[in-house]
Amino acid sequence: MTELVATGKCRAVGVSNFSIPQIQELAPFTTQVPISCNQIEAHPWLPNDELLSFMKHHDILATVYSPFAGQKESGDMLLEDRTVKDVARKNNMGVGQVLQSWAVMRDTIPLGKSQNPERIKANLAVRKLPQADFDAITNLKLKGDEGRTIDLSEYWGVKLFV
């Protein structure tokens, strides 16, 4: 990948779903071309705080897929969470807009997805949340990997998250 940067075919090298140990293992090979970003799952249920802190310390941008989280096996959806809905109502925002705003306030780049043009427009209109509301969303964190909603480890036969 670093050779592609030297040829001008790309400007940066990014990774996806890399953990702290995996980034550390790759670090000796990134002296000429540093890792520019790591695309990871992150949302209030799975904020990935330790990884984000590590990345920030090493100037690696965090692009976060699934900022609205997927549906859990229990059927729970972050977009339907009472706290998220209350914060949205209180601030005259959509729930997606609240979650996108929360992600941006954490210095991440959320990659929200929608096919509805009005929701796409609203989701891009991020705003600074009042601190109490930001904290309320942050407090939705689940233990360990319980918040992970996207894990294809079993399907692919490879342990993806270590």
Element layout with pairings:
Elements: H1 2-7, E1 13-16, H2 20-26, E2 35-41, H3 49-57, E3 61-65, H4 82-90, H5 95-105, E4 109-111, H6 117-124, H7 131-138, H8 153-156
Parallel strand pairs: 1-2, 2-3, 3-4
Feature tags:
globular, alpha/beta, 4 strands, 4-stranded parallel sheet, 162 residues
Provide structural commentary.
The protein is of the alpha/beta class and 162 residues long. The protein is built from eight helices and four strands. It has helices spanning 2-7, 20-26, 49-57, 82-90, 95-105, 117-124, 131-138, 153-156; strands at residues 13-16, 35-41, 61-65, 109-111. A four-stranded parallel sheet has the order 1-2-3-4. Helix 3 links the parallel strand 2 (35-41) and strand 3 (61-65). The longest helix is centred in the middle third of the chain and has 11 residues, at 95-105.
Shape: globular
Largest sheet: 4 strands, parallel
Query: How much strand content do the residues show?
Result: 5-15%
Order of strands, main sheet, comes to 1-2-3-4
How far apart the termini lie comes to 24 Å
- Portion of residues in helices? 25-40%
Structural classification: alpha/beta
Give the number of DSSP strands.
4
Kindly report the average pLDDT value.
Answer: 88
Which regions are unreliable across 5 or more consecutive residues at pLDDT < 50? none
Count every helix, treating DSSP H or I runs of 4 or more residues as helices.
Answer: 8
Radius of gyration: 17 Å
